[in-house]
Amino acid sequence: MNIGLIGWGIASGNGGMNTDIVSLSTAVTHWLIPEHPNGKNHQPYIDKASQFAELSFVKLKGDHQKYNDFLDKIDALLYIEHPILKDEKDYDIVHEAKKKGKLVIGIPMWEWWPERKRWSFETDILWAVTKFTESYLNSLSDVLFAQGLKHNWRHHVIYNQWGVNLNDFSFQLKTKIKNIVFINGNGGYKLRKASDIVFEAFTKDGAPPLTIYTQKDNIAKYKITKNITIIDKTFPERGDVYKNGDLFLFPSYWEGLCHGIYEGQACGSLVLTTDHPPMNECGTNYLLPVKEILQEDLAGKKIMKSKISADDLYKAVKSLYNKNIEKESIDVRKHIENNYNLKLNLNTLIKKTMDILDD
Known about the structure:
By secondary structure, this protein is an alpha/beta fold. It folds into two domains: about 5-165 and about 340-359, Rossmann fold (3-Layer(aba) Sandwich), CATH 3.40.50; about 180-340, Rossmann fold (3-Layer(aba) Sandwich). About 30% of the residues lie in helices and about 20% in strands. The chain is built from eleven helices and 15 strands. The strands form three sheets. Strands 3-2-1-4-5-6-7 form a seven-stranded parallel beta sheet, with helices on both faces. It has a six-stranded parallel beta sheet with strand order 10-9-8-11-12-13, with helices on both faces. β6, α6 (about 130-145) and β7 form a beta-alpha-beta unit. The longest helix is centred in the last third of the chain and has 17 residues, at about 340-359. It is globular and about 60 Å long. The model has no long low-confidence stretch (mean pLDDT about 95).
């Protein structure tokens, strides 16, 4: 089975995941990369992926023939979160794939699934990469079925953990928590990375030093105290992000597919996140209690927004600063190697897909 991937190739979380999929699975033979409305392709990702798959670059509108040519070369279409349908009224790649008899596979975000879209009904198999997602999708499937809404993925939700391309995230022994890092990136959709809570915690008197990787325009409204260092750059390789961090903060309101949490641990760093799913499934023992569950509008739907307190974050980082972590650094890498090896996990997902097709 030749799988064709569709998705961005930019320097984002999903851009990195797309590159990993192409690099690690021999079943993924083609990658269709639509232009991004706000960014450009990250060349290191493109160069790496080109060694493993045939890449095609298309415009969001008007390249229908290129989309069709891509579909003719594959047996199955794969996408993360959504299939890049900016031209949906004129061209729906999932619908076109089904007209050609192709299998369609989706990897949904845990917190959101647009079940009333035609392309979501027509997707055949969903890969749930957290247990929370699996439970959510199976419950949603029952609701849709009870309402008489046919969806191809009913009884075709496959669970397996996501993980890390271990070749790209080398272990570096961390001995003491000196460098605390918060990856804010492009700010996260609706500030989901919880930068407001981070700044509130680290501008308190006595807060330890913090390094923030972020685009500066996304934090312009915050007070920058002497203990906070801002780094605004795009790293050529994702592994470089984690080289100088001993503790990485993910106090996010929601954390999407959680790849950053796995990546930090793969490099031997500790990770602090929340006790809310799916973040609490990702292997770290350092979890902050969610104090408030809110609703957030996300693409026309209400989702859960989990919020920790800045006081709890402040107390946690104060207690962890200067902690000796040499043994834990080794242990978290071993934990990732044993449970979150993405090459093995991807192969498992593909095998489970083949088993469904054989039934």
